[in-house]
Every structure is written in structure tokens, then in C-alpha cells.
Amino acid sequence: MNNYVSFITDEDFERCVSNLYDSYVAAHQDIDVKKIYSNQLDVFKLTFDKIFGNLTDEELLEREVNRQIDKSITNAIGTFHEEILGCIKGYVRGNLDGWDIKSENNTIFADIKNKHNTMNSGDQELVYQNLQRFANENEDSTCYWVKINEKKSFNKQWKGNFRNRKYDHPSVRKISGDKFYELLSGVNEAMCEIYKALPKVITAVLQKRGITTNLQSQVTAIQALTSKAKASNRSLLDQL
């Protein structure tokens, strides 16, 4: 009997949450000076943020570090949804095959995006082309662009128009996260079940792993950049 949700095992649910916790830890620990610089910094925006927001250099840098951490975590949560959906009986996760989830009988293929608003037109066209290819190669299949975080529920044909080229494949659809969870699990409000169970699962995972402290952001990078700025007789923003 499942204690958390009705459509995946407790063991699978806890494993997915445990993997996500590891991603949280890695996101906080991986921030160093090199990584801050490797992410393109908009010094104009940082200047506006500092002055308009009345921030100190240290507050500005801390906010930038947290932004980079948050970006990594957002990607990890997308992976979390893929792992959960891949635990549903009859479905598997992708492995660099151009799809994120598919049914074992090849009747469903899906590309999953946690935050679709970061995708430009070219990205969307590539997703469409991949889904269209799977639909053409697999008779009787339906291929979905899954948009996890949506304000409204939907499951409808996806008609695209990218770079003045129209796409109108009858088996390519776009679907909200809640409807996709429902489609794969056969359970109404399955995504809501996951959400409501999270506090209980997270608590159980942390207890089993003996974790009692909260995550703390890595401050080493901030200290290193501050030292570099002082040594160069620059402001922290100029050092960035």
C-alpha cells in the first residue's frame, strides 16, 4: 500500500526527493568565483539594481549568487518531475534521445519543460520538430510538449509558426503539467497529490538521511571576490 500517493511507490517518491535534495546541496556548494564569472553578468542591470534598490555591493553580490543558485535549482526541479513521471508504471525516462518521457509501447512521447517562458522561438521549433519526427516514426503515437507550471489546464493540438514556417501535425499536442500527470497516472489531480504529499515525503527523507540543519549558501565565493576587489582597489561591482 502506498502512503504518499496512489500511482507511484513510496520508495520511488522518496528516491526522487532525495535526488532533488542532492541537487540543492550541489547548487549551493558549486558556486565559486570561476562559476560566477562563467555566467554572463549584465553589469548594467547590476548597476541599476544596486542604485535603484539601495543595495550595498555585498548585498548585490549575494543576490546575484542566489540568482545563479536558483537557476540551477529550477533545472533540477524539472528533472524531479521527469523522475516522478518515469516512475509511473508503463513509462520510462529519456536518455539524450530527444524525449524526456515515453510510454513503453511507444504511443506517447513527451518533451517536458518546467519553465517554458525561457524558451525562444528557435528552441520551440526544435521541440516541435523532434515531436513531429517521433509521431511520424511511431504509428498511432501522440507526442506532447508538457508545460509543467501553467495557470490553466489544457490538452490541445499544438500548431506552430516559427520563422514563417507553419507546423500543423495532428499528433503533436501541448499539455499542462496537471493534465499530463493525469494522463499518465489515470488519477484525477495526480499532480496535486504529489504537491500535497511533499512535506511528508521531504520530512521522511531528511530523517532517514539524518539531516537536521538547513542548507546554507556558500559564502566562499563572495569572500574571495571581496578580497580581490580590495586588493585591486576597486568596488565590488567594478570587480565583477
Walk me through the structure.
There is one protein chain. By secondary structure, this protein is of the alpha/beta class. 53% of the residues lie in helices and 13% in strands. It has nine helices and eight strands. A six-stranded mixed beta sheet has the order 1-2-3-4-8-5, with helices on both faces. A two-stranded antiparallel sheet has the order 6-7. Helix 5 links the parallel strand 3 (108-113) and strand 4. Helix 1 packs antiparallel against helix 4 (57-86) and helix 1 packs across helix 7 (190-208). The model has no long low-confidence stretch (mean pLDDT 87).
SSE layout:
Blueprint: H1 10-29, H2 33-38, H3 43-52, H4 57-86, E1 91-93, E2 101-103, E3 108-113, H5 121-137, E4 142-147, E5 155-157, E6 160-162, E7 165-167, E8 172-176, H6 177-185, H7 190-208, H8 220-231, H9 236-239
Parallel strand pairs: 3-4, 4-8
Antiparallel strand pairs: 1-2, 2-3, 5-8, 6-7
Helix pairs in contact: 1-4, 1-7
In short:
With 240 residues, the protein is α/β, with parallel strands linked by helices. It has helices spanning 10-29, 33-38, 43-52, 57-86, 121-137, 177-185, 190-208, 220-231, 236-239, and strands at residues 91-93, 101-103, 108-113, 142-147, 155-157, 160-162, 165-167, 172-176.
